[in-house]
Amino acid sequence: MSRDVKKLVVGVVLFVLGGLVVPVAGFVFFFYPMVSAEPAARFVAPANVRVEIEEAGRYVLWNEYESIYKGQTFAVDEDLPSGISMSFVGPAGVGDVEMDAAMNSSVSTPSTERKSVGVFEVDEPGRYVLSVAGEFEARVFSLRKSVLYRSLMAGLGVLAVSVPLSLAGIGLGVAGIAGMVRSKGE
Questions:
Q1: Distance of CA 157 to CAs 32, 78, 167, Å?
Q2: What is the distance between the alpha carbons of residues 67 and 117, in angstroms, rounded to a whole number?
Q3: What domain of life does the UniProt record list for this protein's source (predicted)?
Q4: What angle do CA 153, 19, 27 make, to 5 degrees?
Q5: Three-class secondary structure of residue 76 per DSSP
Q6: Which of left, alpha, beta for 71 (phi over 0: left; psi -120 to 50: alpha)?
């Protein structure tokens, strides 16, 4: 096998690694586990639920406006009803945890459509009480550890690996083809 053919083969392999293998592996090993992770709490509101927070950090409250929960299908308007109130109370000494506005993120899975409604910054682990109250049709809410930072870092990591691999593959492939054309013309 000539040197130019080897360049072409290595270029194609690098391009496939950078353009297909690394992004798929990134999705399988980073994104999917983050999106599909079990919530800290999932419940039908209106309700007060006890939530065991095992790790400090940012937690996002989600309105699951299309969802299957415990065998029951829920399909409600994606906007929150008027008159709804939400609170998150920590263990003794912590008190109320302020809810910040969410970035209005949406997540779709085959069985759930959800939209973020608020973010809680939890400084210490413990047992908390999450309350969603008001006069409205039953709907599903979930509280999940925020994955935004990890998702962004994983995405940047995938780009940092796949783009140079793909570009190197293109460069080697072009060099291999150019070398073969040049040697054929001689």
A1: 15, 33, 16
A2: 16
A3: Bacteria
A4: 40
A5: coil
A6: left
Give the DSSP per-residue string, 6-62: HHHHHHHHHHHIIIIIHHHHHIIIIIHHHHTPPPSEEEEESEEEEEEE-S-EEEEEE
Distances from the Cα of 151 to the Cα of 26, 41, 55, 116, 125, angstroms: 10, 21, 18, 16, 23
Task: Determine if residue 166 is left, alpha or beta; phi over 0 gives left, psi from -120 to 50 gives alpha, anything else beta.
Answer: alpha
| pLDDT tens per residue, range 83-110 | 999 999 988 767 788 888 777 788 888 8
| DSSP-assigned beta bridge partners for residue 107 | 114
| CA distances, 158 to each of 12, 140, 151 (Å) | 19, 33, 10
Residue 83 carries which DSSP code?
Answer: T
C-alpha distances out from residue 83 to 7, 21, 86, 105, Å? 66, 49, 10, 22
Of 154, 61, 56, the closest CA to residue 102 belongs to 61
- Residue appearing with tokens 């780009």: 159
pTM for the structure as a whole:
0.67
Contact 52, 127 (CB under 8 A): yes
